[in-house]
Design brief:
about 260 residues; alpha+beta; Metallo-beta-lactamase, Chain A; nine-stranded mixed sheet; about 15% helix; globular; binds zinc ion
Length: about 260
């Protein structure tokens, strides 16, 4: 039986990267990967639960150095709902996961978004008009931000709880690059401004790549042509899965 990923810490030189669970998604694999049929999943059966659905974890990556604490993506937020025949979504644990690392929301000084799909921005605001992480710079790709100003989509960011509170303070990777050791890598395709985050230890050249939604399941390591239901440009998304080396863990799916 597949399980969702637990809180887990990896050290990259002087930087620690900790996966912080927020919740889980269970989805019909043939619906979310529309080019696949049941027979395609027989060699990936270990990823599926007893109902034949894919189990995925949703959360955030905490990137800590001596001087900073950054979050990459903000999970689902406090939600619990189903799209019948497609998937179930349950979130709400991110702040508890952060507290378990000895930090509170005010300790976070940087938030990076790989993209602005709903399951990556869930904790942007506190539900009372403010930001959940009020002391943090909030950074995203400029093309990603621009795209969602004029496109409304059920998978996209909510106007009231995401776009409006971010509007006065959001900054862009090209104008304010993240701190040394954190490198953003454009990986468009899943969304127009999708970005992956590369963390490098300058001493050892050890690297870890946070993929975002460039991949949704480890099955795509061997099946990179399996595009995701909401990929904006499936061919381009596939190109990045083939071209970019997978040198770390995505934390997206645990088997
Ligand atoms: Zn996405």
């Amino acid at each position: 039986m597949p399980q969702t990923a637990p809180r887990h810490r990896i050290r990259i030189g002087a930087t620690t990267v900790t996966y912080l669970p927020d919740g889980a998604v269970h989805a019909d694999p043939e619906v979310i990967f529309p080019a696949t049929a049941a027979r395609d999943w027989t060699s990936h059966r270990q990823l599926l639960d007893t109902n034949g659905w894919l189990t995925a974890t949703v959360g955030s990556f905490l990137v800590r150095t001596d001087s900073s604490a950054a979050l990459v993506d903000l999970g689902l937020g406090r939600v619990n709902f189903a799209v019948p025949g497609v998937a179930t979504y349950q979130g709400g644990r991110l702040l508890a996961s952060l507290h378990a690392e000895g930090l509170s929301a005010t300790d976070i000084d940087l938030v990076l978004f790989t993209h602005l799909h709903r399951d990556h921005v869930g904790w942007t605001s506190d539900g009372m008009g403010g930001l959940t992480f009020p002391n943090a710079w909030h950074l995203v790709d400029r093309a990603e931000w621009d795209h969602w100003q004029s496109h409304t989509d059920a998978t996209g960011p909510d106007l009231e709880t995401v776009l409006t509170p971010l509007s006065p303070i959001v900054e862009f990777f090209d104008a304010r690059p993240p701190e040394p050791g954190l490198q953003t890598i454009p990986t468009p395709g899943h969304t127009p401004g999708h970005t992956s985050v590369l963390i490098t230890d300058p001493a050892s050249e050890t690297r870890l790549l946070i993929l975002g939604d460039a991949m949704h399941t480890t099955a795509q390591l061997t099946e990179p042509h399996w595009h995701f239901r909401s990929d904006a440009d499936p061919a381009l998304a596939t190109t990045h899965r083939r071209v970019y080396p997978v040198i770390g863990v995505s934390g997206v799916v645990d088997q």
